[in-house]
């Protein structure tokens, strides 16, 4: 029976990648077609995130709403996947009994059988095991949507930062073999993809088998991907500063498609806090890597993630974070208040920074980060940027939207024929969350003889 599928996604790019695969898997097996409204669906899935408590709570409030849909239509199938599912397993059903199936980030390829079991045997099904990278072997050919695509190159993380739930929800690091990644890349470029972002929670620790029986590190993988025809721009996410090796930094001199922008989360500028977080580097070590990166690739911009109010963080520690922000001059970044996650080491010590202090620090950091990002954006006004025209701009203005090499969104008037192509855009204004620009060269029009 064909039907409609609605998937709501929370969390990181890896979850977005997984959601695409959920659509592909259930489209192939059951002919399920995507719909944009939950009311129109026969199967409702939630791909969840548990990185902070707020993210997790969103899941239960949404399930409350879906429960009322199911009261009217008992044949609806409701499923929960992703990191909350992985963390809660069976317990999720006791809090939300309307859930029929629970799957983990690494078992989404088994959804067809799970769906059959739910429908056929009228019983809930739970599978949150970690069958390593079996998932990737069971996925249909990738389908490109637009000229930019994600490719997950590994799962999990073995870096036990004391605040972080990811190693518990996604398991230890496991890398896909190089050939499989290259095959996915060439399939995407054949469909018009020009920009790729290789994904992993701690992608710098990628270590995948290569064809000669050796192990390729991320730098070698990037070089292999860059060799494929059609790969014009290459990014990777997320980098751990401790695992940013000298050889990877040197690749910035060798691989022209690697963008001059890196998301390199520092979390804190205080060595004491970094130690409590088990990050494995110091502020000076971080700054040294930044300097080396900028030596190899002049003008490289950086963005970061920050946590404020980590247990034991003092005003002095926080000041060191502000100082580091001033020293580096980050581009658009993310900052969060510490949120204790069950089962992590940092959750077992007192969450001793009062909420008002956390809020005040967050506000101050965000003001500082906003000013730093604005200075970078303002500095681009008048410059020429190479932009990949990715999609029509949101406002329905007839403009196109794309991103610069340093990942800033630019809206510019241009004909739809330029979608999927790189164009030179002169930046005319910097707005709070995007840039405005104009085509450097108006597209050639074929003169029609009259
Ligand atoms: N793997 C990446 C990102 C992990 S999650 C890395 O190692 O940097 C994205 C961001 O969420 C983290 O960088 C961190 O800033 C934030 N984060 C993770 N756990 C958190 C917690 N318990 N409380 C608040 N923020 C958290
Ligand atoms: Fe979490 Fe990133 Fe640390 Fe891994 S490296 S434990 S994903 S914060
Ligand atoms: Fe969230 Fe899981 Fe990603 S906890 S950030 S969805 S790895």
Strand order of the largest sheet: 2-1-3-4-5-6
- Principal-axes geometry comes out as globular
Mean model confidence by pLDDT:
93
Largest sheet: 6 strands, parallel
Evaluate the radius of gyration. 23 Å
| Helicity level | 25-40%
In this entry the ligands are:
S-adenosyl-L-homocysteine, iron/sulfur cluster, FE3-S4 cluster
Number of discrete helical segments: 14
Gap between N and C termini, in Å? 56 Å
> What structural class is derived from the secondary structure elements?
alpha/beta
Given as residue ranges, the uncertain stretches (5+ residues, pLDDT < 50) are: none
What proportion of the residues form beta strands (DSSP E)?
15-25%
Tell me the number of strands. Answer: 22
Question: Secondary-structure blueprint of this entry?
Answer:
Layout: E1 4-9, H1 13-30, E2 33-34, E3 43-48, H2 53-72, E4 77-81, H3 82-88, H4 90-95, E5 101-103, H5 111-121, E6 125-127, H6 134-137, E7 148-152, E8 154-155, H7 166-170, E9 174-175, H8 178-190, E10 195-199, E11 207-209, E12 215-217, H9 218-227, E13 233-237, H10 246-254, E14 261-263, H11 271-276, H12 283-296, E15 301-303, E16 305-308, H13 315-328, E17 334-337, H14 355-380, E18 384-392, E19 399-403, E20 409-413, E21 422-430, E22 435-439
Parallel strand pairs: 1-2, 1-3, 3-4, 4-5, 5-6, 7-10, 10-13, 14-15, 16-17, 20-22
Antiparallel strand pairs: 8-9, 11-12, 18-19, 18-21, 19-20, 21-22
Structure description:
It is a single chain. This protein has 450 residues and is α/β, with parallel strands linked by helices. It contains 14 helices and 22 strands. The chain has helices spanning 13-30, 53-72, 82-88, 90-95, 111-121, 134-137, 166-170, 178-190, 218-227, 246-254, 271-276, 283-296, 315-328, 355-380, and strands at residues 4-9, 33-34, 43-48, 77-81, 101-103, 125-127, 148-152, 154-155, 174-175, 195-199, 207-209, 215-217, 233-237, 261-263, 301-303, 305-308, 334-337, 384-392, 399-403, 409-413, 422-430, 435-439. It has a 6-stranded parallel sheet, sandwiched between helices. Helix 10 runs parallel beside helix 12 (283-296). The longest helix is centred in the C-terminal third of the chain and has 26 residues, at 355-380. The radius of gyration is 23 Å and the shape is globular. The N and C termini lie far apart (56 Å). The mean pLDDT is 93. Bound molecules: S-adenosyl-L-homocysteine, iron/sulfur cluster and FE3-S4 cluster. Residues 157, 159-161, 164, 166-167, 201-202, 240 line the site of iron/sulfur cluster (SF4).
């Amino acid at each position: 029976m064909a039907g409609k599928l609605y998937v709501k996604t929370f969390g990181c790019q890896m979850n977005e990648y997984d959601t695409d695969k959920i659509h592909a898997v259930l489209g192939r097996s059951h002919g399920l077609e995507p719909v944009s409204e939950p009311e129109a669906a026969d199967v409702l899935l939630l791909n969840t995130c548990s990185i902070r408590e707020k993210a997790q709570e969103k899941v239960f409030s949404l399930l409350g709403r879906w429960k009322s849909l199911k009261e009217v239509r008992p044949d609806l199938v409701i499923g929960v996947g992703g990191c909350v599912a992985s963390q809660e397993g069976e317990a999720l059903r006791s809090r939300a009994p309307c859930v029929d199936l629970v799957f983990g980030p690494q078992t989404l390829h088994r959804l067809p059988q799970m769906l059959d079991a739910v429908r056929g045997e009228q019983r809930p099904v739970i599978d949150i095991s970690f069958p390593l990278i079996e998932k990737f072997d069971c996925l249909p050919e990738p389908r490109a949507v637009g000229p930019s695509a994600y490719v997950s190159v590994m799962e999990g993380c073995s870096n036990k930062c004391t605040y972080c739930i990811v190693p518990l929800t996604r398991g230890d690091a496991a890398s896909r073999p190089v050939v499989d990644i290259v095959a996915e890349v060439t399939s995407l470029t054949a469909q018009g993809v020009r920009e790729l972002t290789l994904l992993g929670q701690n992608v710098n620790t990628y270590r995948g088998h290569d064809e000669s029986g050796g192990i390729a590190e991320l730098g070698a993988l990037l070089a292999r991907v860059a060799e494929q025809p059609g790969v014009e721009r290459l990014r990777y996410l997320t980098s751990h500063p401790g695992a940013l090796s000298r050889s990877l930094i040197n690749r910035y001199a060798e691989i022209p498609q690697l963008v001059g922008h890196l998301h390199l989360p520092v979390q804190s500028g205080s060595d004491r806090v970094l130690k409590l977080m088990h990050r494995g580097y110091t502020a000076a070590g971080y700054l040294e890597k930044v300097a080396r990166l900028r030596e190899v690739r002049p003008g490289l911009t950086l963005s970061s993630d920050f946590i404020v109010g980590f247990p034991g963080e003092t005003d002095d520690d926080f000041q060191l974070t502000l100082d580091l922000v001033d020293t580096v001059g980050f581009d658009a970044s993310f900052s969060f208040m510490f949120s204790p996650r069950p089962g992590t080491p940092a959750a077992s010590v007192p969450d001793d920074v009062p909420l008002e202090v956390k809020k005040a620090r967050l506000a101050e950091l965000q003001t500082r980060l906003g000013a730093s990002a604005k200075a970078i954006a303002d500095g681009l006004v008048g410059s020429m940027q190479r932009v990949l025209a990715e999609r029509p701009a949101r406002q329905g203005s007839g403009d196109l939207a794309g991103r610069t090499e340093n990942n800033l969104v630019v809206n510019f008037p241009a004909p739809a024929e330029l979608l999927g192509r790189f164009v030179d855009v002169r930046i005319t204004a910097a707005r709070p969350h995007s840039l405005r620009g104009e085509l450097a060269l108006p597209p050639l029009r074929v003169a029609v003889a009259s």
